[in-house]
């Protein structure tokens, strides 16, 4: 994999050039060492444990939670089908942006959410990265419906990347462990950056937005969805703009997401569902709130307007060029 990404993969910390051995990858500039395990590379710089311990502990919590979820799926026997963890989307009377309707049955609402996030963005022949790729459902759907030239899935949880690497058969898709605040790719490596329901877990949101801007090519598009506290929406838009990104779509789709949560509830609490008492790991915490089941705190906050599910498209503009020169 390193050979196939050699022109773009760099040190997570200093963005220096990498050298590969049989079992590791090392930065030639700062000497950070990264491990190669089970067919994928882990680009986490463990020095962050010392430099930013509180941030690192928060990230470790996310790794533990998603590892527990992966284990629950494996024990319940539905692991090979459970490629999405997002809330999903059900159409209502508000403006729709998707130009394709999903034909999937098992994960229909989750695929619909992705298709709405993509909207009219041109992906065919483009290079895409999915940051916080989870179990790889988005990347599989992107190749099914849009035919990008290549895709990279980046996730901080090794269990997710191990699953993706074992399941994927596409030579144009690559998966690696990495940190959204320290993306291990060179400047201007991608045409499209995707991030769905993941940024809430990042300790330093501004740093993530700056990294997105850095790895995007001019004219590139950032496809971004997140469940935000109502008072955080304007602040996040400001941080995105300060990073250099221009907002061209900022839509509240909370009503669509709530309808999906309603539809998903039966499946996710059923015999093999993630929130079934026999399957759910007690180490995850409130699994009902994690997946926003009806009646949970997160669900009720969405219903009351205290949280908004925002769907955004942003571009990295070439100085002096207008919207027609972008990928949209």
How would you describe this structure to a colleague?
The chain has 328 residues and is α/β, with parallel strands linked by helices. The protein has a single domain, classed as Rossmann fold, CATH 3.40.50. It has 10 helices and 11 strands. It has helices spanning 48-51, 53-76, 108-118, 137-145, 158-167, 205-215, 233-242, 254-269, 287-290, 297-304; strands at 18-20, 24-27, 33-37, 40-42, 127-131, 150-155, 173-177, 190-196, 216-229, 246-252, 307-315. A 7-stranded mixed sheet has the order 7-6-5-8-9-11-10, sandwiched between helices. The protein has a 4-stranded antiparallel sheet with strand order 1-2-3-4. Strand 1 and strand 2 (24-27) form a beta hairpin. Helix 2 (53-76) crosses helix 5. The radius of gyration is 19 Å and the shape is globular. The mean pLDDT is 90.
Short description:
By secondary structure, this protein is of the alpha/beta class. The chain has helices spanning 48-51, 53-76, 108-118, 137-145, 158-167, 205-215, 233-242, 254-269, 287-290, 297-304, and strands at residues 18-20, 24-27, 33-37, 40-42, 127-131, 150-155, 173-177, 190-196, 216-229, 246-252, 307-315. Strand 1 and strand 2 (24-27) form a beta hairpin.
């Amino acid at each position: 994999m390193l050979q196939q990404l050699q022109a773009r993969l760099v040190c997570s910390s200093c963005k220096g050039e990498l050298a590969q051995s049989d079992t590791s990858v090392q930065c030639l500039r700062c000497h950070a060492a990264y491990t190669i395990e089970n067919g994928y590379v882990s680009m986490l710089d463990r020095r962050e444990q010392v430099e930013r311990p509180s941030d690192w502990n928060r990230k470790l919590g996310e790794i533990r939670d998603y590892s527990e979820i992966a284990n629950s799926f494996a024990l319940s026997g539905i692991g090979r089908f459970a490629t999405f963890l997002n809330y999903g989307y059900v159409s209502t009377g508000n403006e729709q942006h998707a130009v394709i309707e999903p034909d999937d049955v098992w994960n229909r609402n989750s695929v619909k959410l992705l298709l709405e996030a993509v909207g009219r963005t041109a992906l065919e022949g483009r290079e895409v990265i999915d940051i916080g790729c989870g179990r790889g459902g988005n990347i599989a759907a992107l190749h099914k419906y849009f035919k990008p030239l290549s895709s990279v899935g980046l996730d901080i949880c090794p269990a997710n990347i191990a699953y993706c690497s074992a399941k994927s058969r596409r030579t144009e898709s690559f998966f690696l462990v990495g940190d959204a605040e320290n993306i291990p790719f060179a400047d201007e490596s991608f045409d499209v950056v995707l991030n769905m329901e993941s940024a809430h877990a990042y300790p330093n949101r501004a740093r993530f937005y700056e990294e997105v801007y850095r790895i995007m090519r001019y004219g590139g598009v950032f496809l971004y969805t997140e469940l935000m506290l109502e008072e955080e929406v304007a602040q996040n838009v400001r941080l995105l703009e300060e990073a250099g990104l221009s907002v061209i779509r900022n839509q509240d789709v909370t009503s669509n997401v709530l309808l999906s949560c309603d539809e998903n509830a039966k499946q996710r609490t059923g015999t093999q569902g993630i929130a079934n008492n026999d399957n759910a790991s007690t180490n995850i915490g409130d699994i009902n709130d994690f997946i926003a089941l009806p009646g949970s705190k997160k669900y009720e906050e969405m219903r009351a307007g205290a949280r908004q599910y925002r769907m955004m498209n942003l571009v990295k503009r070439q100085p002096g060029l207008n919207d027609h020169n972008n990928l949209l």
